[in-house]
Amino acid sequence: MSQRIVLHVDLDYFYAQCEENLNPAIRSKPVVVCVYSGRTEESGVVSTSNYQARSYGVKAGMPIARARKLLEKTDGIFLPMNHPYYEEISDGIMETLEPFPDAFEKAGIDEAYLDVTSRSNGDFQKAEQIAREIKQAVYAQEQITCTIGIGPNKLLAKIASDLNKPNGLVTIRPENVRPLLQNMEVGKIPGVGNKTQEKLRELNVRTVQELTTLDISVLARTFGNAMGSYLYNAARGEDDEPVQGRDQPIQISRIATLKRNTNNASEILPVLDELAHSASAKLNRRTMTCKTVSIIAILSDLSIHTKSRTLDSPTNREKIITQTSEDLTLQFLNATPSVTIRRVGVKLSSLSMQSGQTVISEFLR
DNA sequence: CCCTCGATCAC
DNA sequence: CCTCATATCGAGGG
Q: Chain C positions under 7 Å from a protein CB?
């Protein structure tokens, strides 16, 4: 069997690039795409920014107020998210990508994995040619540049795409895995965020090379079985995850920020109802049912709390979802009356496709 | 094995 | 000053 070859296609600074295309005049300026929370005129965070803005230190997740400071002496452009538009562009691109590979996996609105093993005959040279064609096709389709990482598995393809953004093309061949990973910081491994990096730091591990010195039992004890073995393999550039898309979601959630912190049900429930409405609308668009309903409460201290209830039978009815969400919220407020809530959310899980048959209880409603 | 809940990641 | 959405894991209880 031939060498497996995976491509990771990453759309460059995606939301900001979409906005540049919508209004080319801003292309030469710092562009910041924002998630406004609606709490005050300016409160919210940065979703994405173009590279001009990044050169001033603007980063995703940063409060908008801070980005404004960083760009105050520039002609920086601040725009609200236009998610439906980005989705439209993304869908067009994903449709372009899908026929190329043996297997296709959309990994987010702006990234995808493509298994091109047979298309490239296991030849990295050929895979690079395919990647160049893909970049051409994506640009021709939507005038969006992308970066493509090529590797013998998903892990290395993703690491590769991170090495030369934007508008890049990087290949990691099996013989280059060792030297490349040696001095790389562990934080560059996908799935290793701040918490994991900090724990590794305590074990005197900063680079991937150093990570390879930890044995699997230590890793499993420190990070659990799944994360432990993932780290053990990742440090060696090994990853067997198949490129495999999922057709149906596992959960559907909606969250919102309240106008002000409160523990007053009359201020919270209307917002909650709207979230429940939106979540069940999506559930029904997908012709799915859920068996578990959860609420999420983010308090004034930003601590996160969840309450969930598994129903006796799956439902797709907004009424039940709303009622359950309200119940859970009142239950939470009752149990902890002194809390003040900043944000609330609704999550639907244990999803299944709606089957054709109607149960008696449904029939009688 | 199921349920609930918190934690983590990363968008 | 602090968004939104998704997936996964593990602990703890039953």
A: 1-11
Nucleotide nearest to A45 (CA to C1'): C3
Run means of pLDDT, 10 residues per run, chain A, 365 residues: 92 97 96 95 95 96 95 96 95 93 95 97 97 97 97 97 96 97 96 95 96 96 95 97 93 96 96 97 96 97 96 96 97 94 97 74 53
How far is Cα A307 from Cα A289, in angstroms, rounded to an integer?
19
A12 and A165 Cβ atoms separated by less than 8 Å: yes
CA count, 13 A, side-chain hemisphere, A310 = 2
Q: Which of A20, A105, A111, A128 is catalytic?
A: A111
Short-list A110, A117, A120, A97, CA closest to A47: A110
Structure tokens belonging to residue A203: 């074990």
The whole-number Å distance from A296's CA to B2's C1' is 21
Q: Is A187 left (phi over 0), alpha (psi -120 to 50) or beta?
A: alpha
Joined tokens for residue A233? 């393999």
- Per DSSP bridges, beta strands A146-151 and A111-115 are unpaired
